[in-house]
Amino acid sequence: MQDQMFNQSWHPLDPRVARTEHAIRKALLTALNSGKDLASLTVSEIARQAGVTRKTFYVRVGSLEQLVESLVYDLFQDIALEIDDERLKMPIARNSLSMSVLHYCQAHQSVLGPLVRQCSASLFMKPLTKVLTQMLGRVRQVNQTPTLGAFEQAYLIAAIASVVHGVLRVWVERGFGDAPDQIANFTDTLLIGGIQNILLADGGA
After folding, report:
1. pTM
2. Mean confidence (pLDDT) of the chain
3. Please, which contacts does 96-104 make with residues 24 or more away whose CB atoms are closer than 8 Å?
4. Which residues of the chain have pLDDT under 70?
5. Are residues 105 and 121 both part of a single domain?
6. In terms of residue numbers, what domain contains 111?
7. Residues 38, 77 within the same domain
8. Between the CA of residue 169 and those of 14, 102, 105, 120, what are the distances in Å?
9. Residue pLDDT, tens place only, 43-91
10. 49 and 86 belong to one structural domain
C-alpha cells in the first residue's frame, strides 16, 4: 500500500528523481514505524538509510519537516482527487465523503499511522488545511454558494482540520480497529450539517 501511494502521488519526469524521492520517503516511514519520533531523527540518518547524500536529500525534499508535510499533502490530495463533483452537491449524502476519506486512510495505514503517531500535529495540519481549502473551493463552485468572508473561511477550515486530525489520531491510537462506518457517522454528526449551513448562508454573514 505504501508503494501504491508513492506511485500515485509522484510523477517526476526523470525516473531517477522518482526513485530517489521514493527511497527517502520509505526511509523516513521505516524510521517512524520503528517507534522513533521525528524530533529524534536527523537528515544524515534518513539520507544514509535511503542511500543518498545529505546534499541530495536537501535538494530533493528540503528538510525532514517538509518531507512530512509533503507526505501528508499527497495523502489527502489523492483522496480529494478521487471525489468527483457529483458527490459534492448539497445536500451531501450522509457518510459519503467521510467514508471515502476513512477507507483511503485505512488502506494506507502504513503511511498514515507513523505520520500521526510520531510527528507533531502542526506538520499534519498545515498540508491538511491546504487540501481542505482547495476542497472547499470545489464545493462552493459546484453548489454556486455565496463567497465566504475571510473570517468564516479561516475558522471553518480550522474546525474541519482539527476534527479530521483528532479523529484520525484516535483511530490510529486504537489500532484502526474501529469500523469506518461508525467513525463516519460520528464525524458527519459533528461536521456536515454545520458546514452546509455556513456555506448556504449569505456569504457567512
Report:
1. 0.88
2. 90
3. 97/192, 98/183, 98/184, 98/187, 98/188, 99/180, 99/181, 99/184, 101/164, 102/171, 102/180, 102/183, 102/184, 103/180, 104/75, 104/78, 104/79
4. 1-13, 202-205
5. yes
6. 65-200
7. no
8. 36, 12, 12, 11
9. 999 999 999 999 999 999 999 999 999 999 999 999 999 999 998 999 9
10. no
